[in-house]
């Protein structure tokens, strides 16, 4: 133990000295000037290089530019999506046979837990932050985020968060299974999560806590940016729909994530310091569920509102019509934001809670379908009689609406107590929320990536591959998750590593068939994502350069937003012999320098 | 020291501090919660130092040292308050470091605070005598 401490002390000392040395090398903190002095550089002015950013890896490690941070978020999220996706494939392959095909029960539980947390916290939230970071300042005409450095801190908390969440997988082989991956499922219900002695659970909780801190910092930044940094031409009446959804989402984060953080700290204290927050003799295990879902249900809307904003922004562009009922889409966004805090106990209908409380939560949960339906009808009405152009981003938007309807309607059934008591903890629930998280949120993210691809890469993606990506995703999603809805009706419980149950409980043959169908769908989905990665990587490196500032021909319908106007200005400012990477960087100041 | 401009003076959109603020916070959390004494101490020092650095860089503070000193004082006060609140007085002894789940962690926080106070104090004095 003592030897271990000494080694750890040595390692930490080396790290700290290394950090100090690196900082002294790249930074001169004696040269800092107070901002009041105009921010000019003291010392030898001629030594100052008049470029926006340093070169190479240092640029990415030190950037506080919202566009760079947006790209970092994007790359991070896509990597997390790949990791979570591979975990999903392992889950689906395991369930091909009732006895489990490839994994031990422990491995299955670990992967199931990590798949959920990875997709929600390391893919979902960051991919939204990627779009918001890159495009909110451009859409509202701001120079940057209100707090660029906090923006960078928020991003840099995420890589350690991911390493901690996945820590058990890396540490199990080297610690002879002393530290294993958490097997608590993503909901971390007490008493299971308190009683699992495995330190991997602590590491996962710390990682989640860090990701929550990051999300909260980001949310504060977006609220401040949208309130204070808008261009003088942008007011509340003409603020774009994506900014509205990010503003609402940030407010939800502000109320929800600190609560998750506190609940996680309480769980950590229960695990390590013998407190009794969630023990039977203390607050009781149900307290965890209340705290978790008071965060957890708003989290659903934290994840879905900005994608709805993306669809509301992109879908009209390819319908040749302005968003139908813009005001009501904004109102329904705000309504969902408020109502989302009043529905959490619908996750707990079967816990034996007070039936009168249950009824009120059912009422609010059913009520939230109204603003959601307002949005859905508005999207459909926007397309009605429009001049539809089925580009890849548009296909993904239509796919979003279609999947959202199935995911939403199945949710309405679950909101009803008697139905929920039958379907609770079955694959019906899994199918329902995957229609939303993959079929809707994932699809909107793809729509955003394709729609803005010309802006953040300066190049065009390959259209055929994009469409193949859409069709494989659409067919794969619907086969996989529709099969899950059917499995739920057959009574298949969720989270099980195997399903060799007695034929008297459920028809095993049919259950196996639907599991196999779901796996086939997942394979189709997986192949689609290979097209996506190939398309993005190859097009970013070799795709044809975009020379027109309006690659989607939006000007014709008077729908060229501020971000494409900014892009056009960048293109005009850049002459071909310049460094093409400037396209994505802004590089405004360098242009000014060179022009003068 | 030659007055060469640092990274964040040369480039308006670059700052070396956010990465280390994040790393410091992550190490502090791991150290304190998992109960790894050295990681807690060094993590907190990195966190406090980076806060001092980033506040100075962005112009909220003129010099980093008072901030470092201040963070150190806050940590010591927090550790002392928790100790008095949660640890029986009889158990508060240096020989008890390493035993009991809470006390060792609080000592780690206090140790980090003490190091920061020392660093901030010495650097302040050195800077003023050099000037």
Q: How many distinct domains of chain A?
A: 1
Question: Residue ranges of chain B: pLDDT <50 for 5 or more in a row?
Answer: none
Number of strands of chain B: 0
Biggest sheet overview of chain B:
none
Q: Determine the number of helices of chain A (DSSP H or I, runs of at least 4 residues).
A: 22
As for the number of domains of chain B, it is: 1
Helix-strand topology string of chain A: HHHHHHHHHHHHHHHHHHHHHH
CATH architecture of chain A: Up-down Bundle
The number of strands of chain A is: 0
- CATH third-level topology of chain A: Cytochrome C Oxidase, Chain A
End-to-end gap of chain A: 65 Å
Mean pLDDT of chain A: 91
The CATH class of chain A is Mainly Alpha
- Tell me the greatest interface: A-B, 66 and 49 residues
Beta fraction of chain A: under 5%
Counted by DSSP, the helix tally of chain B is: 5
Structure description:
The complex is a heterodimer of chains A (596) and B (131). By secondary structure, chain A is mainly alpha-helical. Chain A has a single domain (68-584), classed as Cytochrome c oxidase-like, subunit I domain (Cytochrome C Oxidase, Chain A, Up-down Bundle), CATH 1.20.210. Chain A contains 22 helices and no strands. Chain B is mainly alpha-helical and 131 residues long. Chain B has one domain (17-130). The model of chain B has no long low-confidence stretch (mean pLDDT 89). At the A-B interface, helix 1, helix 2, helix 5, helix 6 and helix 9 of A face helix 1, helix 2 and helix 3 of B.
């Amino acid at each position: 133990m003592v030897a271990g401490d000494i080694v750890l002390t040595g390692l930490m000392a080396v790290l700290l000295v290394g950090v100090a040395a690196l900082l002294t090398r790249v930074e001169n903190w004696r040269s800092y000037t107070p901002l009041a002095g105009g921010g000019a550089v003291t010392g030898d002015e001629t030594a100052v290089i008049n470029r926006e950013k340093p070169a190479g890896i240092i640029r990415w490690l030190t950037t506080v530019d919202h566009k760079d941070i947006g790209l970092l978020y994007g790359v991070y999220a896509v990597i997390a999506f790949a990791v979570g996706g591979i975990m999903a494939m392992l889950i689906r392959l395991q369930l091909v046979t009732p006895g489990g095909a490839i994994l031990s029960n422990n491995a299955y539980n670990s992967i199931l837990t990590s798949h959920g947390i990875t997709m929600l916290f390391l893919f979902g939230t960051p991919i939204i932050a990627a779009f918001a970071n890159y495009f909110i300042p451009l859409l509202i005409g701001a120079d940057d985020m209100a707090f660029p450095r906090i923006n960078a801190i928020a991003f840099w908390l995420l890589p350690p968060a991911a390493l901690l969440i996945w820590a058990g997988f890396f540490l199990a082989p080297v610690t002879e299974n002393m530290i294993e991956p958490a097997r608590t499922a993503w909901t971390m219900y007490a008493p299971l999560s308190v009683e699992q002695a495995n330190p991997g659970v602590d590491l996962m909780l710390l990682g989640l806590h860090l990701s929550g801190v990051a999300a909260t910092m980001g949310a504060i930044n977006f609220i401040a940016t949208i309130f204070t940094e808008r261009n003088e031409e942008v007011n509340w009446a003409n603020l774009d729909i994506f900014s509205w959804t990010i503003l609402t989402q940030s407010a939800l984060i502000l109320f929800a994530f600190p609560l998750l953080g506190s609940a996680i700290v309480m769980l950590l204290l229960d695990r390590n310091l013998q407190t009794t927050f969630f023990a039977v003799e203390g607050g009781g295990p149900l307290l965890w569920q209340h705290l978790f879902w008071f965060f957890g249900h708003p989290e659903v809307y934290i994840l879905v509102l900005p994608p709805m904003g993306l669809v509301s922004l992109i879908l009209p562009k390819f319908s040749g019509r302005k968003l139908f009922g813009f005001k009501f889409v904004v109102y329904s966004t705000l309504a969902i934001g408020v109502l989302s805090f009043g529905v959490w106990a619908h996750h707990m209908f079967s816990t034996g809670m007070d039936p009168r409380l249950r009824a009120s939560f059912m009422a609010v949960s059913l009520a939230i379908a109204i603003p959601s339906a307002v949005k859905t009808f508005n999207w459909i009405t926007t397309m009605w009689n429009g001049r539809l152009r089925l580009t890849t981003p548009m296909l993904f938007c239509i796919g979003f609406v279609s999947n959202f309807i199935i995911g939403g309607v199945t949710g309405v059934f679950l909101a009803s107590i008697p139905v929920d008591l039958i379907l609770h903890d079955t694959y019906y629930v899994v199918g329902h929320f995957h229609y939303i998280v993959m079929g809707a949120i994932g699809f909107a993210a793809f729509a955003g990536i394709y729609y803005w691809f010309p802006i953040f890469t300066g190049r065009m993606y390959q259209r055929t591959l994009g469409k193949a990506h859409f069709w494989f995703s659409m067919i794969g999603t619907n086969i996989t998750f529709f099969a899950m809805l059917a499995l739920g009706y057959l009574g298949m419980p969720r989270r099980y590593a195997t399903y060799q149950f007695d034929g008297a409980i459920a028809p095993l043959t049919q259950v196996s068939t639907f599991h196999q169908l779901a796996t086939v769908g997942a394979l189709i989905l997986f192949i689609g994502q290979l097209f996506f990665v190939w398309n993005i990587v190859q097009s970013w490196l070799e795709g044809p350069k975009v020379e027109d500032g309006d690659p989607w021909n939006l000007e014709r319908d008077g729908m060229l937003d501020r971000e494409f106007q900014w892009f056009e200005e960048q293109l005009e400012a850049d002459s071909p012999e310049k460094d093409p990477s400037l396209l994505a960087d802004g590089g405004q100041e360098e242009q000014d320098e060179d022009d003068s | 020291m030659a007055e060469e401009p640092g990274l964040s003076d040369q480039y308006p959109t670059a700052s070396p501090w956010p990465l280390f603020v994040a790393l410091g916070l992550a190490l502090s959390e791991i150290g304190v919660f998992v109960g790894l004494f050295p990681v807690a101490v060094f993590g907190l020092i990195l966190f406090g130092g980076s806060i001092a650095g980033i506040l100075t860089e962005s112009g909220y503070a003129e010099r980093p040292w008072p901030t470092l000193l201040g963070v150190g004082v806050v940590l010591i006060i927090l550790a002392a308050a928790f100790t008095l609140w949660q640890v029986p007085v009889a158990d508060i002894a240096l020989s008890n470091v390493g035993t009991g789940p809470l006390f060792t962690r609080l000592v780690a926080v206090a140790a980090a605070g003490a190091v920061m106070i020392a660093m901030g104090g010495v650097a302040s004095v050195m800077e003023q005598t050099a000037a």
